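Page 42, continued from yesterday. The earlier attempt failed because a stray header line got pasted into the input along with the sequence. Redoing it now with the clean sequence only.
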Amino acid sequence: MTDAARLRRRTRELLAAHPPAKTARLDFLRARFDAGLAWVHYPENLGGLGAPRSLQAVVDAELAAAGAPDNDPRRIGIGLGMAAPTILRHGTDEQRRRYLRPLWTGEEVWCQLFSEPGAGSDLAALATRARREGDTWVVDGQKVWTSSAHLARWAILIARTDPDVPKHQGITYFVCDMTDPGVEVRPLRQITGEAEFNEVFLTGVRIPDSCRVGEAGDGWRVAQTTLMNERVSIGGMRLPREGGMIGKVAATWRERPELRTHDLHQRLLGLWVESEVARLTAERLRQQLAAGQPGPEGSGMKLAFARLNQEISGLEVELLGEEGLLYDYWSMRRPELVDFTGREAGYRYLRSRGNSIEGGTSEILLNIVAERVLGLPVEPRTDKDVAWKDLAR
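This time it went through. Structure tokens are written below.
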């Protein structure tokens, strides 16, 4: 199934059998998955047809023209962008069959239990422990900055299973049921006033060995698949020209000529060009993905995404003056998604501060680009061959 015409025909057959206007949203999404039109590059019977990734646009265009519902990808971005490609690559057949369909349809929301209070930028230093008891792993520890933990049914989790080896070697990757006893989610209120993030406490959480992804002790390698896909999903999202943050500022510039100054004009032009370069580079990166797994180039895109969002939102606040300082709602709430373009300038300015932290800090991503893309000398690491239990903490 590699031909665009065949994909169009298959999509129209789906629409004929399940007219969007007469079919319940969830029923349509399930039928789309079963027809192999969810993500066409995935294998057959797992929502795909083994077709080139680039042909997904053919399916999406047909469905959009017919008014078909989507799976609200912003709400389930962690599942789509991180959990799914990791499970596909490293999971068992049983795990793929169990998790991928409800993940894609949005019936089950996912979150990511990676970062810890003492292991953010240096993720491999994580201290959450998992000890094996027969066919079960017992997990104790704390995770932080967990988006959507208050909504999630499942989490991708990495924990230390062997403290006697260097930090990168003693980690194992799991799927954790967020409804299990011992999982406690607490909100973390942000500068926006919202609690989009959470901290998660794991106390004696029992995870079946069947929920282990990859081999015991091989979790760091599995986690790299998650992290590389995460950075592509954040920095490489598909946007139209003037999509995203730059579109909001450009619209204000056109509609409010009384706000214009020469300095702001020059800065807007520069950021518009950089945004367009980033958009086209992201398109090229997505085309490269069709040939294999994402590489370190995604880190460069995520770096650009964070910097541009912060600079553009700062320009917007300056352009609007006092009006740009207004903020609609300071009471604490726990949103289901981040909406950069559907909110006011004050929200965009505050929320974009987190872009250089989430999904890998900009400092760590600069190291990745320097070492793995540009081939510069590796930064000295004195703890690389030291057992985790012997590291200073």
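Notes: The first strand starts at residue 110 and ends at 113.
Reminder to self: strip header lines before submitting.
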